[in-house]
Model the fold of this input.
Amino acid sequence: MMIYLDNNATTMIAPEVREAMFPFLQQEYFNPSSMYEAARPVRNALESARQTIAEHLGTQPPELLFTSCATESVNAAFFGTVRANPHRKHIVTTAVEHPAVLEVCKELQREGYAVSFVGVDRQGNIDLGEFVRELRADTLLVAVMHANNETGVIFPIERLASIVKETDPEILFLCDATQSVTKLPIDLNGNFRNVDLLAFSGHKFHAPKGVGGFFVRRGTRCRTFMIGGHQESGRRGGTENVPFIVGMARAIEIAAATHDADIQRIEHLRNKLESAILQTISHVEINGAGAPRMPNTLNVAVHFVEGEGILYQLSELGICASSGSACTSGSLEPSHVLTAMDVPFTAKHGSVRFSLSRYTTEAEVDGVIEEFPGIIARLRRLSPYWDQATNQPR
Ligand code: PLP
Done:
């Protein structure tokens, strides 16, 4: 049996989503911009999908653009606002953002922009004092993620965005909501009313990869990033990916219908896994446990072992999980998120992320509970930091 606990990386396409997409992969293949009658249902499906998603997020259809992924939406937000506001040269973000944001910020630094990377505490909470201090007269954009992909820690977007607008209503606020759309309450007319730009990706909530959303609040100074045809009211060129957009709307509908029951079940399973690990393995801690956290995410810091080793052993048993660290050109870089949280060296390299979805079964979680302690014991026997005689760290 394969056990899939890597849903923050990507999710299975829901059967209902596949079904909704199917006609648009077969007979309804017409270009939604075409004038003839055959294209009308395709155009209607596109606009109906926009309406569904806009409603779900508390916005109006004209404020919602379709893109290829969250990374594109984030790029469109940064480069669109930078080009529309050349007089401001400072950006505020956090040290724990996804590379989609961090790497764009570094590119803008190379182009002469000043960027403040606000830190987090040991639990992953944003440093509010530092956040406030970093806002400047020439701040153009503040970019903060809603939920962290590695730890699941949730940032207080409503509070942060209102601080920004009270400080200077001209500063634009971008929220990377890739991990939270369909999972946490987002109302662009309510709790997210001070958010100007929002990015998300369909494949994180059981739609396919290759489709994303980009909310741009009416009146926001943001130039077109993808220049081309007149699609998306001239604000994002490129023929729309109708089948995937239809699938994304269907995924949002299903998530909304089953949300409460799903979240309860998912949280119950995550907590079961978490307590079992804490009870059966010594020298482990849960990264981000002291902060508001996504109910589907469990980031376990296992001291004195290598995360890559754990993942390899899990994979041998058909268990899919993920580590915080990224393997770059042969050298193992610890996760920038855990580094920002000041997770000790002995645990930073041994962190593993399990992330659940509504398709996660109790049997899958039980499978990990059964195998994980044995894997850690085996790896510790090989660890130079572990004393075999005492079964304790050296
Ligand atoms: N932002 C966050 C928080 C993410 O978790 C991800 C994907 O893992 C992205 C952005 C980028 O999403 P995509 O690869 O679909 O563009």
In short: Residues 63 and 218 are 6 Å apart (CA to CA).
